[in-house]
Design a protein that fits this description.
It contains eleven helices and 14 strands. With 300 residues, it is α/β, with parallel strands linked by helices. The radius of gyration is 23 Å and the shape is elongated.
Length: 300
């Protein structure tokens, strides 16, 4: 379990990066951590895994304070930075075995574990290549393998989806769900909010260094504004003016998204038919996580 308590970080020049950040990630839970660039996600994650010291506050990892009991706390963390940096001249399998040594795993056991992890992260057959020949996505997979060496209870993934192709994204999704099934605590930040929506049990929104929302995915769906998605083959100015009078609209090709409407959707549909609209699709949906996120930060 990851318990983040009143974290504050002030960088030189009196720059406040995060302010009293408090939340937790329970065992067997995936938590999505979202915010604009510079909101404080990476600073929070780096402090949580012991890379940075907080100005105030602390992080408790399975009962161990990351500041006061760093060695014990760190043993229980698997961390993946946004941009993994390794020695480009190192042979991948040699480097992974070297990392295993920090966890007391050496010799034949290290060799067997390394091969098992290469297979697990989809790098089987690339063990003998130098890290410098790896693509960014392959380096991410290698970093994932490194984070799995000690089979920690807690995982901190910072923008793990950046640089991954669709196959890599699917791989991470399946891995995260496997970790959850195994009772691990998983915190991951991402700008790909559709994946956060698909994966996370809860979502934490950080804005300008402060937590502004902590909600379960189901709560977000209940609390989100309804959106009418209407595809009209003969969309014209009169139809657009009518829909604009009902609320906020966004037009993409022949599809109009209508928000903040008060009229009954059935009445809207009937009025459009009377106007001669050729409707090929008329659905009511909840906001996506991305739409919810943009609305929430727009209110701050």
């Amino acid at each position: 379990m990851i318990e983040i308590r009143e974290l504050t970080k002030i960088y030189p020049g009196n720059k406040l990066a995060i302010d009293s950040v408090t939340f937790d990630v329970k065992d067997g839970e995936i938590v999505g951590f979202v915010g604009l660039n510079g909101a404080g996600k990476t600073t929070t994650i780096k402090i949580s895994c012991g890379i940075l010291l907080p100005t105030k506050g602390t992080v408790i990892i399975d009962g161990y304070d990351i500041v006061k009991d760093k060695v014990e706390a760190s043993k229980r963390i698997g961390w993946l930075p946004e941009i993994p940096i390794f020695d480009n001249n190192a042979k991948a399998i040699s480097l992974l075995k070297y990392f295993a040594g920090f966890h007391g795993i050496t010799g034949r056991k290290a060799e067997e574990l390394a091969k098992e992890l290469f297979k697990k992260v989809g790098l089987e057959g690339f063990e003998e290549r130098k890290i410098g020949t790896y693509s960014q996505g392959m380096k991410k997979r290698f970093a994932l393998a490194a984070s799995l060496i000690s089979d920690p209870q807690n995982f901190l993934f910072d923008e793990v989806l950046n640089g991954l192709d669709p196959t890599g994204i699917r791989f991470f999704r399946e891995l995260a769900l496997e970790l959850k099934r195994n009772g691990k605590a998983v915190l991951f930040s991402s700008h790909i909010l559709s994946e956060v929506e698909n994966l996370a049990d809860r979502v934490i929104i950080i804005h300008k260094g402060k937590i502004i929302k902590i909600m379960g995915i189901d709560e977000i769906k209940i609390g989100s504004e309804p959106v009418l998605k209407i595809t009209i083959n003969n969309l014209n100015r009169n139809i657009i003016e009518y829909l604009s009078s009902l609320g906020e609209i966004n037009i993409e090709g022949k599809t109009v998204s209508l928000k903040k409407f008060k009229e009954d959707p059935a009445i809207i549909n009937n009025e459009l038919v009377k106007m001669g609209a050729m409707i090929s699709s008329f659905t009511q949906q909840n906001e996506s996580l991305e739409e919810f996120f943009l609305r929430i930060i727009g209110e701050k």
